[in-house]
Amino acid sequence: MWLTRRDICRLACAAGAAAGAAPARATAGLALRGFDAVSYFLPGGPVAGSAAYEVAWQGLGWRFAGPANRAAFRGDPAAYAPRLGGYDPAGILEGRLVETDPLAFAVLDGRLYLFRDADRRTRLLALLAEEPGLLARAERGWPGLNRLRDLEPG
Q1: How many domains does the chain have?
Q2: pLDDT in tens, 84-121
Q3: Domain final residue, candidates 26, 47, 81
Q4: How many CB atoms lie within 10 A of CB 31?
Q5: Is pLDDT at 57 greater than 90 in this prediction?
Q6: Is the pLDDT of residue 6 over 70?
Q7: How many of the other CB atoms lie within 10 Å of CB of 143?
Q8: What pTM, to 2 d.p., does this model score?
Q9: How far apart are CA 7 and CA 3, in angstroms?
Q10: Segment 68-76 long-range contacts (CB within 8 Å, at least 24 positions apart)
């Protein structure tokens, strides 16, 4: 069963009221700055999502342009979510977490990767032509960086 952000907020508010606490936010933030994750895989994408078609997944709110994209995401969220936690693959290869721009992206081997900017995307795509194993190396390095990220204070 999937809950919408509104459902989660209602539950959180009810639980907070019962405990005498202030209502808590249902999610830590908005994934992809509100862009529709499914639209990256469609012609003309990415497009902005709508709060009317939002779902919570892995602590974030994910917005979609319409019910069909929301349903596709619900069916297999990991297939549409950006790889490497949404961090720049070049940064992962350097052993650091680099924030990204949701409009600087590439779909490679059916997977969504985000980059800090268009220049970093262009450079990494050129490197991939010479060293096709770079993304696999970034994927192998990601779990260790992800664990370190989770240990950092808020």
Answers
A1: 2
A2: 999 999 999 999 999 999 999 999 999 999 999 999 99
A3: 81
A4: 25
A5: yes
A6: no
A7: 11
A8: 0.78
A9: 6
A10: 69/36, 69/37, 69/38, 69/39, 70/38, 72/38, 73/37, 73/38, 74/2
Question: Are residues 3 and 66 both part of a single domain?
Answer: yes
pLDDT for residue 3: 40
Asked if residue 122 and residue 61 are part of one domain, the reply reads: no
- Per DSSP, the residues of the chain read ---BHHHHHHHHHHHHHHHTPPPPPSSSEEGGGGB-TGGGGSTT---B-EEEEEEEETTEEEEESSHHHHHHHHH-HHHHSPGGGG--HHHHHTTS----EEEEEEEETTEEEEESSHHHHHHHHHHHHH-TTHHHHHHHHHHHHHHHHHHS--
Q: Report strand pairing: 50-57 vs 29-30.
A: unpaired
Structural domain containing residue 60: 1-81
Residue identified by tokens 């999937």 is 2
Residue 103 near residue 46 (C-beta atoms within 8 A): yes
